[in-house]
Structures are given as C-alpha cells and as structure tokens.
Amino acid sequence: MGYKASEQDLIAYLYGELEGIEKEAMEKYLHEHAESREELEKLRQLRNTLSHVQDKEVIAPPIFLGDTRQRFFGSIPYFKTILSIAASLLILLMAAKLSGLQLRYAGRQMVISFSGGSQVKPTETPTPAPSLTSDEVNKMIHSALNENNQAMQTSWTETQQKLDASITKNLAANSAKIDNLVRESSAASQEQIRQFVSGMQTENMQLVKNYFQLSSNEQKQYVESLLVDFAKYLQQQRNDDLQIVQTQMKSLQQNTDVLKQETEQILSSIISTVGNSNSLGVKN
Amino acid sequence: MTETLLDIAMMHADSLISRAKDGDQNAQGRVVQLWYKRIYNFCYKFFLDHDLAMEVSQKTFISMCKNLPSLQDNARFKSWLYKIAVNYCREEARKKKGSRSLSFDVVWNRDAEDSPQWESTSHRNENPERQLQHQELSEVLQEALLELNDEQREVVIMKEYEGLKFREIAEVLNISENTVKSRMYYGLDGLKKILERRNINKETIGYGI
Predict the structure, then answer these.
(1) ipTM computed for the complex
(2) Which of A6, A53, A68, A164 is the most buried (most CB within 10 A)?
(3) Residue of A26, A42, A48, A64 to mutate when probing chain B, most B C-beta within 10 A
(4) Which of A59-68, A141-150, B67-76, B147-156 has the lowest mean pLDDT?
(5) Which of chain B's residues have a Cβ under 8 Å away from the Cβ of A7?
(6) What distance in Å separates the CA atoms of residue B119 and residue B117, rounded to the nearest whole number?
(7) Global pTM?
C-alpha cells in the first residue's frame, strides 16, 4: 500500500484521535517501523514531562457586567461631576423650600430665617388667647373626658351584662345537653352490658352442652367397643379351651384304645401260654 | 483529568449557557466561575505573567458576556471562548512586542537555535538541577514553553493543558486540522530540543521530585 505515516497522523495517534482504519494502518506502520515507534515513545515521554506543569489556582473576580456599565459612563469626561453638582444644587433648593428658608437683606441687616420673617410680631398676639382659654380648655377637656368615660362605662357594663347572660344561657343549655347525653349513654351501656352478658351465657351454655354431648358420645362409643372387645375375647378363650379339651379327650381316647389293644394282646398271650402248659401237663 | 471533569460540567452547563445567553446575570456569573480558572491558566501559560493573565482573562469574560447572544451553537461555546481568549492574548502580545526591545516571543526556528540569542534567553537557568531540587519543575517547563513561538505555544497549551480536540483548536484558530497537527508536532519537537538543551530529562525529573 505504501502507507507513509505523516507527522500529523503521528500526532493524532499520540493524542488518541485516530479512529477506525486510520488507527489500524498507523498501528501496522508502527509495528513495521522501529524508528517511528521510537519517535512516538519519545513524544510520550515528553508529554509525561509536560504533565508536571501545575494549574494555578485562581478565584474569578465577580465584576463583569457592572464593570462594563461603569466604563460606559466613565468614558464621557466630566459628565459625572457635572451631574453630581446639579443634583446637589437641586437637593439644596428642595431643602430650602421645605424648611421655609428666607434670606433678606434690609438696610444693613442680613436676616436668615426659617418659617417666614414675621416671627417677631406674632409673639404678642397669640399670648392672650391661650391664657384666657387655658382653664376653659381644661374644663372642656375634663367634661369631654368624663362624658366619654361615662359612655364607655355604660357601654362596658351593657356589654358585660350581655356577655354574662349569654354565657349563663350557654352554660345551662350545654349542661342540660351533656346530662342528657350522659344519661342516654349510661342507659345504652347498661342494656349493652346486659345483652353482652346474656350472649356470653348462652354461648357458654352451648359450649358446655356441646362439650358434654361430645364427651358422652365418645365415652359411650368407648364403652361399647370395650364391651365388644371383651365379649370377643371371652369367645376366643372359650373356643381355645374347648379345643384343648377336645384334643385331650382325643388323646385320652387314643390312650385307652392302645391300652385295650395291649391288654387284649397280653390276655391272648396269657391264654395261649396257659393252654400250652395244660396240654403239656396232660401229656406229662 | 480536569478536562474531562470540565467537559461534564460543561454538559450540565448547557442550559446554563442558554440562560446566560438570554441575559440571566446569575447564569453568566456561574459560567464565568466555571471557566475562569481554565482561561486564566491558558493565558498564564501563554504569558507566564499573573497580571497579564488576569487582565486578558477579565477582558475575555467581559467580551463573552457582551457577545454571548451572538453565539449560535451552544456546543461550540468552548472553542468560541478560547477564540476570544486567543485573540486577546495575541493583541496583548503585540502590544508587549511593540513596547519592549527584547521581544519575548522570539520566532523560533532551527537556525536560531545556534544563534547567541539562545544563550541570552536561557541565562537564568544555568543550573536546572538546583531548580528542580526546589521543585520548580513546573516553572522551568513553562519557561521552556515560553520559548516557542506564539502559534506553536497556543496549540501546545490548548492541546496538552486545555485538552481541546484538534478539531476544536482548528475552529479556534480558523485554520485546518492538519495545520494544527503539524504545529503541534513542531511545537513538541521544539520543546524536546529546548528541554534537552536545558538538560531536563527523565532522570533529572525523577531526581527533582
């Protein structure tokens, strides 16, 4: 194929960015060419060396968009200072207006005053008015206060009475209700208990009855089976006894038969011997 | 690997990104939290300078928040974000190049290897063993990385440390996958030579750690 690995391919292979056929071709080429292999190894070593460079830690300063705006305004010279002077003048004017500042220059006098310049004259006129009325005012205030207090008190007492009445009513109604409820509930509970008890009794009775019935049945059966077994046993015994008696009787019979035969034989022999001797005696 | 973990977080963050796209500031904040460390580390390895890395990553995320609505495919978020970061890195590198007499992104080529400039740039690392003993291997490696040219450095960092696929890197840099791979190859080759020159090999690493 005449494939010749270029520097670019070598670099791409070094950083693992060759894929598929290209990678295979490169690997084959490296297998065949020792000098390229060596070069690649050297590059790897270099990369290893380079990896000793450490990143510097740095904290991002939180600046950016605010910064750009400031730059925008700052770029127009004197704009800021002019604006601030105008603003402070405006504030001064407003303050003067609000506080009623007056500046007057009359004759050789420079007068600076707050809340108008007529502060000297009115000092005489307002004095009689309050001195005349102060007692009256006090009285009026007292009377008004008294009235108010009385009205307040009456309304207080009324509301209190109303409240008391409503509370007592509510209490009475509530207690009656509660009494009823308690009574009902007690009656109900008595009945319930009675029912419960009677139910319990009947259940118990049935249980006991069942138990007795069951147990008596079982006992009956047991006794019956016992009796039957006993009868069977007796029968068996009798049979056995009968058989024994029979066999004994049979053996007895046999014995008597044998004895009979023996005695007959003995008798016959005796008779014969006797007969012989008699004949001999006769002869002799 | 942190990359795979991040990828998992990324999957979970898919809805996060779409919310951030709709202008949810909370979600945008979360996205920033999620990616800040990666972008910062990318920039740090690119410049080997904390302040520059912070600046570039902040710019990156400001731009991200502004331009997020124009992102069409949520799956491309990663390469899109790195694209922004890479562009800011390049911009910053250009500024630096203009302002300093000794450019730090010396265009690396094989002829330059034997030029006296190499000697001047590596004078700080006359005794790598001692540095290793002080467990500064990480820094030595990063300094070696810094000796690569911008194009190779970008690719090496994105591949080796950020774990992007070659396809994603190609997307970030708007070049073909093959170009990415050959940049990676020459980047690694260059690193190998730089490390050999600095007498860093397997034995010295083992000794240092």
Answers:
(1) 0.72
(2) A53
(3) A64
(4) A59-68
(5) 181-182, 185
(6) 5
(7) 0.48
Q: What is the amino acid identity at position B29?
A: G
The per-residue pLDDT for B128 is: 53
Please give the Cα distance from A70 to B50 (Å, whole number): 24
Residues B45-72 have pLDDT tens digits of 999 888 989 999 999 999 988 888 888 8
Chain B positions touching A53 (Cβ under 8 A) are 45, 138, 141-142, 145, 161
The tokens describing B53, both together, are 């890395």
Other CB atoms closer than 10 Å to residue B10's CB: what's the count? 19
Alpha-carbon distance values, A115 to A112, A127, A134 (Å): 10, 19, 26
Chain A residues closer than 8 Å to B184 by CB:
11
Euclidean distance between CA atoms A221 and A19, whole angstroms? 97
Predicted confidence (pLDDT) per residue in A185-238, tens digit: 888 888 889 999 999 999 999 999 999 999 999 999 999 999 999 999 999 999
For tokens 């190499």, name the residue. B118
**B143-181 burial code (b ≥16 CB/10 A, e <16):** bbbbbbbbbbbbbbbbbbbbbbbbebbbbbbeeebbbbb
Burial class (CB within 10 angstroms; exposed 0-12, middle 13-18, buried 19+) of B79: buried
SS3 content of chain A, % helix, strand, coil (to 5): 80, 5, 15
